[in-house]
Amino acid sequence: MIPDEIAQEAWSLSARHLARGQRDPTKMVAEAIAQERQRCLEIATECCGENSDVVRKIADRRWR
Question: When comparing pLDDT for 62 and 43, which is higher?
Answer without folding.
Answer: 43
